[in-house]
Amino acid sequence: MRNQIALDAERGLEYIHEHAKTHYVHRDIKTSNILLDEAFMAKISDFGLVKLVEKTGEGEISVTKVVGTYGYLAPKYLSDGLATSKSDVYAFGMLTALKNSPDSMNMLSLKEFTDPNMMNLYPHDCLFKIAMLGKQCVDDDPILRPNMKQVVISLSQTLLSSIEWEATVAGNNQVFSGLVQGR
Question: Which residues form the Protein kinase domain (predicted)?
Answer without folding.
Answer: 1-160
